[in-house]
Amino acid sequence: MTKRERTLPTYNHIMEKCNDRSLDTRVNQLANRKNRIVMGITQLNFEGKNKVEVAIDLLRACEPPDDYYGADSGGKDSIAIRLLSRLARVRVDWHYCVSPIDPPEVHQFLRQYHPDTQWDYHARGFWKLVHKKGLPLRQARWCCEVIKEAGGLGRTIIVGNRRLESANRSKQKCFEKHSKVDKIFLRPIIDWTEGEVWELIRKHNEPYCTLYDEGFKRLGCVLCPFVRDVKREIERFPKIARLWRLSCDHIMKRRLAKGNATFKDGQELWDWWISRK
Description:
The chain is of the alpha/beta class.
C-alpha cells in the first residue's frame, strides 16, 4: 500500500459517508483544516501542504470510477479547476452549458483555448421561457436551473465555486450531494480567494478571457439579477441587452392580455428591472 492509499479515503468509503449524510470525512478535513487563515497558494498548512497540493489530494481521493464531469464556464475559476485536474492527473470530461446570455468573448475564449470542452445546449428556447416565466430576479432566479445546472445527472461534478463569492456559497462544502437530484459536487477551490486563483493562473501562464483585462472581475450571464453595474453591461453588450429589453415587451403583452399587469408597458418593466430595486 502506497502512502497516498494510506492517507486518502477510497471513493466507495466517501460515498458511504455521503449517503449517511455525514460529510465531516477526511475529504472535507483536507480542504478545511488549513483554511483558518488566509494564505497564498504556496504557503504551507499544518500538514506541510500548500493549497494546490490539498486540492490535488481532494481530486485524487474523490475520483469516481466513471470519471469526473467537469463544469467549464470559461471563467477564471474554471481555468483553475481545469489546471488542478491536469496536475492531479484525474480523468475528466469537460462541459460548457451553453448560455445565450453569456458574453460572446466567453464563447470565443472557450473555442480557442478549451477545444476539448463539450458544448451542451440545455437552454434552447430560452427567450420563450423568459416571455412565459418573466424576468429573473434576485429572489427568483429560475434561469440558473435552466442554463447552468441541467447537466451532470448521475455524475460527480467538479465545479469552481468559492465560499467568498456569495452568502449561499459560503455554506457549501467541498464534497456533498445535491439535495434534490442525483449529483455529487466536488469543489477543490472552495476556500480559495480570488487573488489565489489569479496567482495559480499566472504561475502557470494559463490563458484567460480578455474581459478580465477590461476590468470585469466575474464573468457570467449579461444583466444577471446580481449584477450591480447595469449601465456598464448594457453599453458593453448591447445586443444581449436589446434582447432583454424586447423580452419586456413580450412579457407585458402576455400580462396585459390576461389582465394581471403590474406595469403599464415593456419600457416601465425594463426601467424597473435595470434599477435593481
